[in-house]
Amino acid sequence: MTDGILAAVKTFAIFFVVINIVPVLIWMERKVAAYIQDRRGPNRAAILGIRLGGMIHSLNDVIKLFTKEDILPPHVNKPMYLAAPMIAMFVATITMAVIPFADPMTIGGKKFLLQIADLDAGLLYVFAVSSLGIYGVLLAGWAANNKFALLGGLRASAQMISYEISLGLAVVGIFLLAGSLKLSDIVAQQGSDLWMWNIIRQPVAFFIFLAALFAETNRLPFDLPEGEAEIVAGYHVEYSSMKFALFFMAEYAHIIVGSCIITTLFFGGWHIPFISADWMRANADLLLKINWAGFALVSILGGGYIAKWFRKGKYGDLRDFEPLVIGVPGILTGVGLLGLFVLFGDQVHLTGLWKGIFIAGLQVSVFLAKALFFCFFFIWVRWTLPRFRYDQLMRLGWKGMLPLALVNILVTGWVVLFGGHHT
Amino acid sequence: MITLNHYLILAALLFCIGIFGVIVRRNILIILMSIELMLSAVNLVFIAFSRYLGGLDGHVWVFMVLTVAAAEAAVGLGIIVAVFRNKETVYVDEVKELKG
Amino acid sequence: MNPILFYTFGGLAVVTALLMVTRQNPIASALWLVVNFFAFAALFALLSAHFIAVIQILLYAGAIMVLFIFVIMLLNLREEEIKPRQLQFSGLLGGGLVIYLIVLLVLGLLKIPAAPFEASTEGFGYVAPVGRLLFTKYLIPFELTSVLLLVAIVGSVVMGKRKL
Amino acid sequence: MLDLIYKYVSPQTLAWLIVAFPLAGALLNGIHSLLAGRFHFKPSKVFTSILGVGLPFFSFAVTLIIFATLIGFPQGQEPTMITGPLFEWAATQGLSITFGLKLDQLSLVMALIVTGVGSLIHLYSTGYMAHDEGYARYFSHLNLFLTFMLLLVLGDSLVLLFVGWEGVGLCSYLLIGFWFEDPYKAYCGKKAFIVNRIGDTGFLLGMFLIYTALAGADLPAEQHQNQFFNFEVIRHFSAYLLPAATPICLLLFLGAVGKSAQIPLYVWLPDAMAGPTPVSALIHAATMVTAGVYMVARLSFLYVMSPFAMEVVAWTGAITALFAATIGLLQTDIKKVLAYSTISQLGYMFLALGVGAFSAGIFHLMTHAFFKALLFLGAGSVIHALGGEQDITKMGGLKERMPITCWTFVIASAAIAGIFPFAGFFSKDAILWHTFHGGHISLWLIAFLGAGLTAFYMFRLVGMVFFGEPVMKAAQWMKVHESPPSMASVLMILAVLSAVGGWIGIPYALGGGDHLQEWLAPVFAKTVGVIEIGSHATEIVMAVLSLLWALHFVILAWVIYAQRKEWPARMAGRLRLLYRLVFNKYWIDEIYNFLIVRPLIWTSEKFLWGIMDVRLIDQFGVHGTGRMMLVWNRLVTLMQTGVVQQYLFFFVVGVILIIWGMLFK
After folding, report:
1. Using CB atoms, which chains have 3+ pairs under 8 A with B?
2. Domain that residue B16 falls in
3. How many Å lie between the alpha carbon of C27 and the closest alpha carbon of chain D?
4. CA nearest B94 in D: which residue?
5. Rounded CA gap, D500 and A359, in Å?
6. Chains C and D lie in contact, requiring 3 or more CB pairs less than 8 Å apart
7. pTM value?
8. How many residue pairs from chains A and C have C-beta atoms closer than 8 A?
9. Residue D605 belongs to a domain
10. Is the predicted pLDDT of residue A423 greater than 70, yes or no?
11. What phi, psi does A40 have (nearest 5°)?
12. Does chain C have fewer CB atoms within 10 Å around its N or its C terminus?
């Protein structure tokens, strides 16, 4: 029974994290796009003059989408029209179930996984679920009863079927090396040694996987299902308000999930390069101190940097005080932390549960940092590369990546067979 | 308590529903889907017996069945598309070219 | 072996199967079949066949059914029109026959003494043991399936081409 | 020398080479000939000659090596070499047939004759057939014949013997009908084949009888290993064949009668003269026709178990000897005379076998091979010289134009007539002596009379062909020429053999060592009346008597046909009826024609073809099957509606029935 509750808590926590990263990603997308295009990006929406660099815009969007009129066009196939966005969002988030965020904690002699389910066929589960992602798009396109939507849906399904093969074949090399489909095993096999990470050992697989993942998430340069210049907005052209929001969120959820998977498969998961989990456990106090002091220093310096922006009369209203509102509490926090560190730094000893939580927190942070970098990478690519033509897309998928993935499997197989990497 | 018999009866039910679909429906796609349903019902029997007997051979055979199902779907859909291209129909009672 | 889970998913499987064969709209049929396959996967998982459960979803729900829906969309099929009268009769006959078959089968299966499951061993149904079996005892059938797949690929390509 | 050879090859391999060489020749020449026909080029004569003649000579050389090896065996040790089975040829539950060779004294003597005389005739053929279209085909057939003949004599089982037996029959057919454009010659080939089949039926039945007798007897399996046709096995278990010995021997002898042209199946041999003359010499005089003799000698242990069968063999041989000799008296075709002479001589061999003098029979077989080959080749030389003329009444005085042919022919004739010291004297004398000594006085009388007639018709032939005045026109006379060296040399070699070939069998009575008899003795079963050595005086008297008897006929023939040419016509006029009877060969062919051939053809055409085949088989069998198919087809097509669902419907009905059966049985 406790297991059930624990699983529910974990599920909720992870879902919560994903849902909350989505607005951040949206903000990130806008900002990155703006800087790549040499402009400022969103900076109008504010709460009491606090704009948080435009992050309030995302909040605004959320409120807008929630409160918008929910239109149900008369010509649609109602049950499927309604089901499609739910499927999309559902599928996008459940992949997170098998992603290991940190080393298993041991609480009271009991193992506590920072992962909802450590499936034996975890990697297969990832593919099984990601292959279901097509349904949302396909149904949305079909149920809308609109030729642009249908074209978008067909394009999406063809594209996803095609790239799913490369996606799957790319990682065959990885589980040949790991000897397991369990994601925790794959992470453990990579370890904290940078040279054992799959990005080093399977670079070809990484690039294939990355490209296929772009196609799976329907992101540029593979966003043909929603190519607005050609088919208006593709499969979700008939959707509005929260139903559209679900598609929108699903896309970003996909990005997050994809980043997490890449991190897990190729970048050692929650491992910190050259610092093993055992070492971390042994030197938890030192790490805590470094973090403590570091965080305090960063807070002071960051707060000071932001507070320096304050200039009276810039806007002539509340917005003038924004740097102070953000910067001063930062400085104060930093000073407080530093003071605490000087006073009690020597006396702090992490033990038992606290130690576990600290280590896990550290690992989760590392994991999230890596994942967020890939989220950024997704956005970066989107605003850098142009869109493929449909035939180019298919040629790349079937004639380029698929054979390459097969060759990669072959070479990896040889290496495993003759290189003595048997597990 | 759930015994092997429960699973067998369930599989029999599902299999018969599949048969029903094949016999009654005119749409060849649905017939094909019903066949997939029948195959899955058989798989259920395999798995149930495998669990009952404690060996993994049933799993292997399910694996084979799945392969066959995939091949069948690919070829079957290819045929359907070809037939539709020529006859503009997917209803089996309108495709009787093999009549003796 | 949780009875609640079994009856839930078993019932779901039967209901969705029935819905699948009775829907007029082929897309609806296909979607109900997808749900049905999820129920199957759950039943497999109940029987500790996790690998097969995942494969069931990956292959059936993720690949085969997508193909079906894709084809239905490609052919732009709408709801099936009501059958001609004599076909209705034959459908009725077939339905009766199948119901009779079900009755017979259930009767027959009820006659068999109940066979309870034993506790499953650790690692039962994992990928590695199944894979090991595939590459040792069933190596030749396994390799032959590759031939089957090749034949299927060639066959579908040939049929898909308008002109060779 | 031998050691040097056996350093590199085993005796077994050598034994196989004996058969393999001619086979290679046959295949290569056959392919050569076929390719030539297919791609329209002229077959290379040089290639054909080198292969076709060289390979038989190699085979002969190998046989000689093995012969030398066996001769060198120490005393008391039986010089038998059985090569291990090359492969298992056929295997069933109760029967296993292996492909192996058996080289013992008997088969080796036969192999020497076959390869030796055969090689010489091959050589001769290069001259005789030089201008023929089917040169390559001819040598291919001839080599194939050698292969089968060697298989026949060397095979270690009855089945292998039968293979060779049929194989030589096939080659005989091919070579008799070699000039198949001529319908008569093709007919002759067919006749030989069919008559032989009658005998073969008996042979097969005999084999089956042996199998049933042995397989039904519950013998220890490790001793026979199901190889019921192996000679060793048959010999080892011959006691089990005792109850069936008489039918087996008679049936097998029927085969021998067919193959060796004895009464009543001799009719094919005279017609076999339609083939090229070297073929007649090789197949229809020296080798193939003696296969029956070889077979009976090989199975001597069986024959001695059935006195009745021995009687039959002896009487058949004796009557054939006399009967054929009388026909030979009046023939005018040079080859026909020799053909009947062959039949007659084969009769002598069977007589010898029948009275239990197996080695005497083989001895005569050997000498006969030498002089009869020589006679035929001489006749061939004459025919060659005269441009195809075969009628002896149109010849005469050829001594002048072709001396070598003439004198070698005379030597051969003397040999066959039994003139001392030529080969035939010893062998024929051995037969006569054994017949007499075995107490078969009436047989001896017949044989003695036949021997006289032999001398008569042979010298009639010599006289009419080579002596006296030439009857042909001068222009033609000038064209007659001696044969080319390739032919003449063969004639001379054979003449030497005919002259001295009998010396290895000089009996003790005449101061010889009877080497052949000694050499062959272990192979043969002992007959009931064992010949004692001791009454040398009687033997010498008999020999002198037969010599005088033969000489008397020689001189008679000489006088009549070389000096007084009008006498025969006068004699014919006086004994008109008898003359016509003998001249027309007792109308045997006509009788057969009337009694067997015509009824058979009538039955085939009217009944088997007209009623059985057309009415019954065609109507009910062939067309009936088709009609039945149509009827069924109509019924079955009713079920094929093309609606898959109906099929499944019926399928479900079937399943329901099965479950019903399982539930409520």
Report:
1. C, D
2. 4-90
3. 22
4. D643
5. 118
6. yes
7. 0.59
8. 76
9. yes
10. no
11. -90, -30
12. C
